């Protein structure tokens, strides 16, 4: 039941002093929390950056290793190519020398370069020319030389010259066999 | 739950103002969570508002939960039954009056402009509640007004609030000044007081029963005053006697003043009862009982007048108006 003609003013626990104190504390707490959140965010960012940097470092290290392997492979390839180049040069020289060996009257139809030998196919007018002009230099180069001839329809001879170079040990063994 | 928490932090402070013509009583109660109650009461000169504000503010500062209540002392307040016999309308203007209705029982009201004036007069400290003396009276005799017809009178320093209730239903209400501002009756009262005072000044009217016999014996021994020391002692005794006489005179004056005020109160009550009986707008019934809420300390004369002149059964109950106002504030603030 109502007794008073007027209604009471609103009463609040938050007086102006308390409001001021609460505002002060709220602001302080807000600043503390915001600082804490800022630090947390920054910390997580730094953590993320650290992880990224570590990943990058790991990748770089991995790349370095891979590159080192590639470099080694390339170096090997390089050395191999140099070897091949040298070999090819030697081979080229050998072939050049070979063709230099072949006289003008003999025609080569095919030449097979083996690892330790040479097989030549060709046509010679006669055996003598072959023996004097080609077989002799071949024998000076190769340790073993075998020749076989087939007559052609026009009177020339088709020849196959098989020449081998023996290792020193093989050579000695071969010589011993020959001696026996 | 939250109220308890509030009370744990701050006490509830109920500041109750009872403004009379000459003096203003400020009664304060502080309610603590522990249940302890501190009471303070201070009487101020009504004209010295600044002192009152300062005193109120000193308590209001203690807690944000303070409630300032004022007892309506405006000339326009009153009470009435919901409708009068033969009249459909209330006899106050609801447009200009603030009212509180007790459904189907009665209504009490005061002028909106007076309320505004009261609010303005305490605008420095603000007001939370303004209570009608009729609400205080009904609340004070709450156990009685539910019963048979009886007259209830709140006797305040400057006024009387007369009401007649039966079964919580109001039949009659009247607000009358006993010390009002410039009515003929009041002037009459003042004249009577002045005459009495003058009369007493001329003839020191001392009751023989009150005269100290031992002192009279000393008068008999006057011829024995041989030395100056004895003379001094004698003159001192005479001075003390003069003081006693003045106090006695003052008491008599007050007694006579109270008598005349009580008589005036009686005459006002008598007129009000006559009006209740004779005025057609009231559904008059025979009154046998009178309950008086005494806030000022009336003399036995008023009771005697009412009993002997009007053949009423009179019951006087002492009322601490500040405390009653505080009780209503507590109820209202919940």
Q: Could you provide a short overview of the structure?
A:
Chain A is of the alpha+beta class and 180 residues long. Chain A has helices at 16-101, 127-141, 168-179; strands at 107-113, 117-124, 144-151, 157-164. The model of chain A has no long low-confidence stretch (mean pLDDT 88).
**Amount of beta strand of chain B:** 25-35%
Helix-strand string of chain B: HEEEHEEEEHEHHEEEHHHEHEH
**Uncertain spans of chain B, ≥5 residues at pLDDT below 50?**
84-89, 181-226
Mean pLDDT of chain A comes to 88
Kindly report how far apart the N and C termini of chain A lie.
Answer: 148 Å
Gyration radius of chain B, to the nearest Å? 25 Å
Strand order of the largest sheet of chain B: 3-2-1-4-8
Give the fraction of residues assigned to helices of chain B: 40-55%
Q: Give the total of beta strands of chain A.
A: 4
Strand order of the largest sheet of chain A: 1-2-4-3
CATH class identity of the domain at 5-71 in chain B: Alpha Beta
The assembly state of the depicted protein chains is: heterodimer
Greatest interface by residues involved:
A-B, 14 and 28 residues
Query: End-to-end distance of chain B, in Å?
Result: 13 Å
Overall spatial form of chain A: rod-shaped
Poorly predicted regions of chain A: none
- Main sheet attributes: strand count, strand direction, barrel closure of chain A: 4 strands, antiparallel
The main β sheet of chain B shows up as:
5 strands, mixed
Helix vs. strand class of chain B: alpha/beta
Mean pLDDT of chain B: 77
Radius of gyration of chain A: 49 Å
């Amino acid at each position: 039941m109502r007794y008073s003609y007027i209604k009471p003013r609103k009463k609040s626990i938050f007086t102006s002093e308390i409001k001021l104190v609460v505002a002060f504390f709220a602001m302080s707490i807000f600043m503390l929390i915001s600082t804490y959140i800022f630090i947390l965010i920054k910390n997580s960012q730094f953590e993320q950056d650290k992880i990224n940097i570590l990943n990058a470092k790991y990748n770089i290290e991995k790349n370095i290793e891979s590159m080192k392997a590639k470099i080694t492979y390339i170096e090997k390839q390089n050395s191999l190519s140099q070897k091949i180049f040298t070999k090819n040069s030697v081979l080229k020289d050998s072939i050049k020398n070979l063709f230099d060996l072949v006289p003008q009257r003999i025609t080569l139809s095919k030449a097979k370069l083996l690892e330790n030998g040479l097989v030549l196919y060709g046509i010679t007018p006669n055996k003598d020319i072959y023996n004097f002009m080609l077989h002799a230099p071949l024998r000076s180069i190769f340790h073993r030389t075998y020749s076989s001839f087939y007559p052609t329809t026009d009177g020339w001879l088709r020849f196959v010259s098989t020449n081998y170079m023996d290792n020193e040990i093989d050579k000695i063994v071969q010589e011993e066999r020959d001696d026996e | 739950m939250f109220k308890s928490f509030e009370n744990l932090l701050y006490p509830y402070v109920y500041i109750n103002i009872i403004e009379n013509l000459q003096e203003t009583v400020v009664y304060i109660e502080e309610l603590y969570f522990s249940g302890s109650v501190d009471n303070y009461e201070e009487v101020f000169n009504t004209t010295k508002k600044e002192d009152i504000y300062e005193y109120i503010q000193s308590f209001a500062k203690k807690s944000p939960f303070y409630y300032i209540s004022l007892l309506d002392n405006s000339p326009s307040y009153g009470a009435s039954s919901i409708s009068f016999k033969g009249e459909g309308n209330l006899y106050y203007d609801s447009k200009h009056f603030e009212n509180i209705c007790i459904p189907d029982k009665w209504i009490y009201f005061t002028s909106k402009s007076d309320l505004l004036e009261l609010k303005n007069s305490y605008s420095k400290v603000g007001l939370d509640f303004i209570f009608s003396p009729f609400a205080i009276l009904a609340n004070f005799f709450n156990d009685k007004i539910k019963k048979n017809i009886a007259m209830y009178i709140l006797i305040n320093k400057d006024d009387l609030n007369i009401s007649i209730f039966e079964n919580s239903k109001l039949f009659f209400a009247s607000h009358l000044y006993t010390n009002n501002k410039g009515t003929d009756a009041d002037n009459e009262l003042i004249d009577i007081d002045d005459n009495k005072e003058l009369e007493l000044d001329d003839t020191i009217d001392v009751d023989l029963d009150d005269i100290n016999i031992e002192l009279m014996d000393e008068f008999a021994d006057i011829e024995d005053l041989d030395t100056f020391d004895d003379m001094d002692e004698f003159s001192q005794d005479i001075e003390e006697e003069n003081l006693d006489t003045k106090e006695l005179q003052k008491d008599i004056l007050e007694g006579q003043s109270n008598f005349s005020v009580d008589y005036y109160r009686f005459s006002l009550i008598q007129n009000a009862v006559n009006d209740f009986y004779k005025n057609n707008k009231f559904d008059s019934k025979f009154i046998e009982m009178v309950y008086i809420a005494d806030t000022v300390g009336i003399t036995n004369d008023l009771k005697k007048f009412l009993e002997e002149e009007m053949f009423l059964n009179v019951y006087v109950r002492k009322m601490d108006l500040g405390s009653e106002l505080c009780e209503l504030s507590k109820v209202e603030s919940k």
